[in-house]
Amino acid sequence: MQGLRERDYDWLSHLATEAEAAEGESRAELRLSVQGMSCVGCVWLLEKVFAKHPGALTICVDVVQGELDLSWEPGVFDMVAFAREVQAFGYLLGPRNADATPAESSGLARRTGTCGAFAMNAMAFSLPAYFGMPRDFPFARLFDLVAVMSATLSMLVGGSYFISRAWRSLRMGALHIDTPIALGIIAGYTGSLAGWLMNAEGLKYFDFVAIFIFLMLGGRWLQQAAVERNRRKLMRDTSIPERVTVIAAEDGEASEVAVSALTAGSRMRIRPAQTVPVAARLDTASAAVSLEWINGESEPVEREQGQLLPAGALNISSHEIEAEALESWEESTLRKLLEARRGQDSRDLRLERVLRIYLALVVAAGVLGALGWWWAGAGVERSLQIMISIFVVSCPCALGVAVPLAEELAALRAQRLGVFVRTLGFWKKLGQIRQVVFDKTGTLTLENPALKNPEAIQSLSAQARAALRRLVEGNLHPVSRSLYDQVGPGDRLDGEVSEKVGQGLSLRTPENHVWTLGRPADPESADAELRLDGDFVAGFAFTDSLRPETATEFAELKRRGIVLRLLSGDRHEKVEKIAQVLGLSADDWQAALTPAAKAEWVADHSGATTLYIGDGANDSLAFDEACCAGSPITGRSFLEQKADFFFLGHNLRFVSRLMDVARTHRRAVHGVFFLSTSYNLITVVAGLAGMLSPLGAAVLMPLSSVATLSLVGWTFRADRVRAVGHEAKGGPVAGGLEVVLPAQ
User: Fold this and answer.
1) What pTM did the predictor assign?
2) Whole-number Å distance between alpha carbons of 676 and 697
């Protein structure tokens, strides 16, 4: 059996060593794939095993994608010891790669085939007894012995799969979802063994035990195969390279390193069809990249040497490109987005509580049902059948996998819109939204403002251009990015650049001169000024541009009955012009608001049904008062702990589509709960009434699991087809024109 076979964990030791070297002295992190998980009960068990190891910090288990994230104290936590212990529980760790290890379903298929042979053998040697074979028949005891051996071998090969998982979880203080199945198998085998030893013909059902184990394994194999199909699809759609080619600065030698080892200044080679893992500066003369994964825009984007490549851009050139990393993987916005919903609130604790209570009720119902029938004079055999039927038929495996699957599919659908969801309860909250409030700058308007006076760049001296280039390169503030695109590649002054949040950038050269880029003395004439040792050099003025399709999206939201508001801390004139373009009445927008005033307004205007979308620290208090909140990603420090979601891209068409995803998620979850509740009520009542045999229960349970998982996938596919059909008939589509607001 794979859980007991000795395995070579040198690869894991190597990965752990790399992670410890990359993350630093106090904390190391690693993501691994894991086989053998079938439901959230496996999550509880893995968490228990991990927590007892010295140096263990945090673990996040994703049952749908078959992955776990670990963090630990370097030099204290023994990764290989942890892997060997979970292997004893039937879980195999592997590199985070869909094809790194053989599928769990293949191991179950082998067990199922073997137990199928044992079941046929037990049934063949039990048939003579059913057809009236006399007890004194010369081969009667031999036939019984063969049936006993077949059932025993079936217990060792197949029953052990369920029993070992249930027993080890109980030893760890966790109630595994396989517990009712294990109890049913043990009860059936023990009763048959006692009947054989005591020569009680009414209790000898070894053929039943073997067939029952075969059916349970077959059902688990079908369920696991369905989970793996969804898992492979999810991993394909969210693939980020685990390793990247890095060129050594000393000798130009190329080597493969983990993405987690990237640091600012690393020179990378990005192969065709490979994703850029961190924000970088292009060193190759030119490149074609796709930003579809980031913002849904499928058109190729041309980049020239010296220009920025955003994290998540896909190299669609026919050749390798070289780029210099501007940030480490730890600092990468892409990493933060991908990890956003894997934090402490990524688990549905309500579902876990429901499943724990449900398991306890199943065990209680089975035991009490058996006692009730025995008390009524049904006999031990009939009472055991009642208990086994209830234990098996009401296994909540489907619910424990289907609901997390709905969460993953919804998050993946949102990710295709350029939206990264970080809170698990977001979909439920989004269904309650009746009002959407937008901040202006960086939210309704594009992150990078347009330079109104490009002649200011053209008139700079070579030294001033080199200073400006050094100041803004690698800085992700909207003004810096806009200026960097204007100043272009070229020479850069040496020196250390520092930033004072809210004030600007400064560069101290080796000659002890100080260049600054910051707030202007006269806000009416410029938005930023370049100075040398305090003396004015040049002023730069910018104009806001609305995100593409903003007006179209506003019209769609209004059509759905959503109330739209605009709150801004900007000047009255600038806010009024945007409000007019968007068709907002005077009551629908506010200008020159302080952060506290924004929060007060949201609290006084249906905050419990409000979605607030903003991008800066001045929106933080308003986030607290809203039902849910979202923030665009500009590369700056964003509202990581408060936003329910982050979005990339240049347009806002995702808002209505996100509401569509929430509706699909709600339909899927409601369908799962309705199907599971109806199924369990009907089957448990049938079991208690004696209308359901253990073999019938063994057939129904896996079928319910497959049906529930299929229901989730079908719901999302059907809604996707409807959405595509709506767009084909003239609904909101991708693209649109950028609206440039009039200059002040």
Assistant:
1) 0.63
2) 15
Residues 662 and 553 in one domain: yes
Distance CA 400, CA 701 (A): 13
Distances (CA, A) of 655 to 324, 339, 549, 688: 34, 22, 11, 49
Is residue 87 domain-shared with residue 123, that is, in the same domain? Answer: no
**Residue located via tokens 């292997």:** 87
For residues 560-578, average pLDDT: 87
* 529 and 518 Cβ atoms separated by less than 8 Å: yes
**387 and 377 assigned to the same domain:** no
In this structure, the answer to whether residues 700 and 733 fall within a common structural domain is yes
CATH assignment of the domain containing 695:
3.40.50.1000
Residues 296 and 326 grouped into a single domain: yes
Query: What is the C-alpha to C-alpha distance for residues 359 and 356, in angstroms, rounded to an integer?
Result: 5
Sheet bearing 514-518, strands edge to edge? 496-500, 504-508, 514-518, 528-532, 535-540
In this structure, are residues 480 and 487 in contact, taking their beta carbons and an 8 Å threshold?
no
Task: Say yes or no to pLDDT of 654 above 80.
Answer: yes
736 and 625, same structural domain?
yes
Q: What is the CATH number of the domain that holds 482?
A: 3.40.1110.10
Which amino acid is residue 522, in one-letter code? Answer: D
CA dist., res. 473 & res. 651, Å (int): 25
Q: Are 287 and 303 in contact (CB under 8 A)?
A: yes
Residues 89 and 126 in one domain: no
Q: What angle do CA 111, 116, 117 make, to 5 degrees?
A: 105
Query: Domains in the chain: how many in total?
Result: 5
Burial of 534 (0-12, 13-18, 19+ CB in 10 A): exposed
> How many Å apart are CA 424 and CA 43, to the nearest integer?
17
- C-beta atoms surrounding 184 within 10 Å: 30
pLDDT value of position 277: 84
